[in-house]
Amino acid sequence: MKYPVYVAKRLVSLIPVLFGISLIVFFLIRLIPGDPAATLLGSHATVQSVAELRSQLGLDLPVWQQYLTFLGHLLHGSLGFSFVYNSPVTDLIATSLPVTLWVLASAAFFTLLVAVPLAVWAAARRNGVADNIIRAVPVIGLGLPSFWLGIMLILLFGLKLHWFPVAGFGTTIPAHLWSMVLPGVTVALTLAPILIRSLRASMVEVLGSEYIVTASAKGISRTRVVLGHGLRNAASSSITVLGVNLAYLTGSTLVVERVFSLPGIGQQMINSILGRDFPTVQGITLVFAIMVVIVNLLTDLAHAALDPRVKLA
Amino acid sequence: MSAPTVAFDPLEPPEPDVLVPRRRLRGRRRNTPLVAGLTLFSLIALVALCAPLLTNHDPIQQSLNEAFLAPGAAGHPLGTDALGRDVWARLLYGARVDLSVAVLAVVSPFVIGSLIGLVAGWFGGWIDTIIGRVIDVVIAFPFLVLIIALVFTMGPGTTSIYVAITLVGWVAYARIVRAQVLVAKEQEYAMAARVSGLPTWRILLRHLMPNVVLQAIVFSMSDIVLTLLAIVTLGFLGLGVPPPTPDWGTMIQEGQQFILSKWYMSTIPGLAVVLTGLSLALIADGIVEKANRR
Questions:
Q1: B224: region left, alpha or beta (phi > 0 left; psi from -120 to 50 alpha)
Q2: Beta strands in B162-261 (DSSP E)
Q3: Domain coverage including residue B170
Q4: Phi/psi at A127 (5° precision)
Q5: Do B280 and A31 touch (CB under 8 A)?
Q6: What is the pLDDT of residues A110-149, one digit of tens each?
Q7: Any idea what the CATH number is for the domain that residue B203 is in?
Q8: Residue B157: helix, strand or coil by DSSP?
Q9: Under DSSP, is residue B185 helix (H, G, I), strand (E, B) or coil?
Q10: What is the ipTM of this complex?
């Protein structure tokens, strides 16, 4: 199959998933116990205001009609209106999304910075002391709460050593970059152990293959064999692993933004939850899911483009 | 594709992380991670169970004139929090809450997910297609985001946490068991059971299940760790077990405001989470190793 056909097929396969996502986000409001309008307004609401909100949310219509309205708004790029901020949810998301993308980029950067060298080192000296230590790391890293790790990093590098800002996003690009170091490292330290595990496994496999033996037999230095021939081939299969992790990482930005007081969509979601601002929570949940779908799509496309052995089925 | 509860793919065959190089010792191989993990976890569970014997303080009792005592203060080995509550008592009773919720919350996703995976893998066809589509949609949401949204809509409390984790967590088990069933159903014992005319439910539950459930059990161990992290994170975000019930996540969050002068307030409950996570991760690792040896 040709690559453009693969891309087209992959895009078509997104339709049912996006449809399902919209369905789940729509039915979230149905899970509110009792009358959603009354619950959302709290105990001080008047009968009139409850009725008003119910019709504003369209809760007095049949369910299928409500869903079609919701879908129609979605296709027009509208995610509803925030109760608390009195502005369209899309505006709120548009202002906070860039911060989240910064966090994601920084987290991905530091994860690779930590994971790739350690995985290569472990695989190159298989069953050595370093390998055994590096392989033990995921066991310890699995139970590490990222928010706690973030607080500890703030305590050490922010409050004691004053190397990095403890909170906020800054106003200039250098300040943004500087404020992204600790959040990125926080995510990297919880994510890297898992990435190391898979990257090391594929490196070990690649280093055992015949072309590596051939390369070594030709008298190429060990460093060049490992980095030039080994890592290059292991990397293409690791892209998938990175994609899976990026999807998971997308969720963890929520916690990290909270710890470091970064005004991203994760922070916005928590604030909206505490303010019982349902449309905003709904909208951000949707955006998170779409971000994961896009990351997965890009991973698949990149993997297929880089590795000619991938079956374009 | 992404896994809902884990950052790594549950379908990837687990590889043991050997903490100590395998060697023969008196003819038997030691499973160091399993032994270490079980010992540590039993210790934590025992301490949680015996909480009333290990402290005289009520974890909820406030005593404002005794607030902010440093660890080592008379009668309060780990000090007191902003409301004068004993930290050691809150840590112990918090262990009871967090551990029991984490372990129980894994049960229903395990049972429901395994059954769904069994059905999807065995019957195939349109049933499998529909289940596959549902799984694709659920894993499109970041695990934590969906849990938080669900707990928010259903209102705070342990029931919401159980329901939310079940609604999201079954997917991983369904994927694992489905993949195993696809292999198992082509094997001779499954064919034999089918040919002998046994009722389908009997083939599925008595013949297939025991053979495919091992991977799911292995995964459930790391799932407990991830669930514990989710519960503690919910507590940190103010969406977990409602106060004044002690919970490690809430304790870390409460301590964060005083981090500059009272660093230990967040550090101590965090260490408790890390230790518990480590014990469970070691058990999971040990089980993988045991399974690989078979």
A1: alpha
A2: none
A3: 31-56+72-293
A4: 65, 10
A5: no
A6: 888 888 888 888 887 777 777 777 777 777 777 788 888 8
A7: 1.10.3720.10
A8: coil
A9: coil
A10: 0.82
Domains and CATH numbers, chain A: 47-78 (no CATH), 96-262 (1.10.3720.10)
Query: Apex CA B144: angle with CA A198 and CA B253, to 5°?
Result: 110
Distances (CA, A) of B241 to A45, A86, B99, B159, B248: 26, 31, 12, 9, 10
- Residue B210 phi, psi dihedral angles, 5° rounding: -60, -25
Q: Which of B15, B153, B223, B224 would best serve as a mutation to test chain A binding (most A beta carbons within 10 A)?
A: B153
Can you tell me the distance from the alpha carbon of A82 to that of A91, in angstroms, rounded to the nearest whole number? 10
Q: Hey, are the CB atoms on B252 and A152 less than 8 Å from each other? A: no
> pLDDT tens for residues B194-242?
888 888 888 888 888 888 888 888 888 888 888 898 888 888 888 888 7
Question: Is A17 in Cβ contact with B278 (below 8 Å)?
Answer: no
Q: Cβ separation of A159 and B260 shorter than 8 Å?
A: yes
Domain membership flag for residue B8: no
Closest listed residue to residue A10, CA positions, set A309, A304, A308: A304
Phi then psi for residue B73, to 5 deg, are: -65, 155
Taking chain A, what is the end-to-end CA distance rounded to the nearest angstrom? 7
Q: Does B167 touch chain A (CB under 8 A)?
A: no
Contacts of A163 (CB under 8 A, 6+ apart): A157
> A117 to each of A192, A302, B91, B153, how far by Cα in Å?
11, 22, 38, 43
Total domains present in chain B: 1
A127 touches chain B (CB under 8 A): yes
B140 within a domain of the structure (yes/no) = yes
**B228, part of any domain:** yes
**Other beta carbons within 10 Å of A143:** 24
- Indicate the residue of A145, A270, A289 with minimum beta-carbon distance to B141: A289
- Chain A hits for B1, CB-CB cut-off 8 Å, are 244, 296
Q: Is B228 on the interface with A (CB under 8 A)?
A: yes
In a domain, B9, yes or no: no
Geometric angle at alpha carbon B237, from B95 and A246, rounded to 5°: 100
For chain B, the straight-line distance linking the first and the last C-alpha, in angstroms and rounded, comes to: 30
Residue of A12 and A194 predicted with greater confidence: A12
* Yes or no, beta carbons of B19 and A132 under 8 Å apart: yes
**Interface touch A139/B148, C-beta < 8 Å:** no
Distance in angstroms (rounded) separating the CA atoms of residues A64 and A72: 12
In this structure, what is the dihedral angle of CA atoms A58, A64, A65, A67, given to the nearest 10 degrees? 60
The encoded tokens of residue A204 equal 């070990």
Q: Give the Å distances, CA to CA, from A32 to A35, A268, A281, B235.
A: 7, 20, 13, 20
